[in-house]
Amino acid sequence: MDTNEELLEFPCEFHIKAIGHTTKDLDATVVSVVRKHIKAIYEGGVRSKPSSKGRFTSVTVTFTLESREQLDNIYVALGAIDEVVMVL
Predict the structure, then answer these.
(1) How many CB atoms neighbour CB 43 within 10 A?
(2) Taking each helix axis from N to C terminus, what angle separates 68-79 and 26-35, rounded to the nearest 10 degrees?
(3) What are the contacts of 79-85 at 24+ separation with CB within 8 A?
(4) Residue 35: CA atoms inside 13 Å, Cβ hemisphere, count?
(5) Which tens digit of pLDDT belongs to each residue from 20-77?
(6) 50, 59, 66, 83: least surrounded by Cβ within 10 Å?
(7) What pLDDT is recorded for position 2?
(8) Which H or E run includes 6?
(9) Distance, CA of 38 to CA of 66 (rounded, Å)
(10) Closest of 84, 85, 75, 1 to residue 38, by C-alpha
(11) How far apart are CA 53 and CA 2, in angstroms?
């Protein structure tokens, strides 16, 4: 068993954060990608925060994570967005 899998019990509440170059639709793009892989985002489960100089924005999405494979797929999909520089 993978050590990382031992840290998560599925299903579980999960927060994923994408940090990217600030654009007018970064948050909508991140949410759209996450929605393709999950059943639902929690009410109030999307938070955006600009960096102090406004060049970057972090978008945090909270949802129920069903499996490690689902998480891996979300990380890959978010990493493929041109504006995204980091996924946590």
Answers:
(1) 7
(2) 150
(3) 81/18, 81/20, 81/29, 81/30, 81/33, 83/20, 83/21, 83/23, 83/26, 83/29, 84/18, 84/19, 84/20, 84/26, 84/30, 85/19, 85/20, 85/21, 85/56
(4) 10
(5) 999 999 999 999 999 999 999 999 999 999 999 999 999 999 999 999 999 999 999 9
(6) 50
(7) 52
(8) helix 3-7
(9) 8
(10) 75
(11) 39
The owner of tokens 């909270």 is 62
Residue that has been written with the tokens 């929605």 in this structure: 35
- For residue 66, the model assigns a pLDDT of 96
Single-letter code of the amino acid located at 72: D
The DSSP 8-state label assigned to residue 19 in this structure reads E
pLDDT of 9 reads 92
